[in-house]
Amino acid sequence: LKQVLARKGAMTPARAKKLLIPCLEALGEGHELGIIHKDMKPANLFLTDPGTDDERLRLLDYGVARLQDESRAMTMGNQVVGTVAYLAPEYLVQQRVSPQLDVYQSGLILAEMLMGERVVVEDDVLSAANRHRFAQLEVSAPLLEGPLAPVLAKALARDPDARYDDCDAFAAALKLVDVEGIGVIAPGTPRALLTSVNPPPEDTADLDGDRVEGAVREALEPTTPLAE
Question: H/E/C letters for each residue in 42-93?
Answer without folding.
Answer: HHHEEEECCCCCCCEEEECCCCCCEECCHHHCCCCCCCCECCHHHCCHHHHH
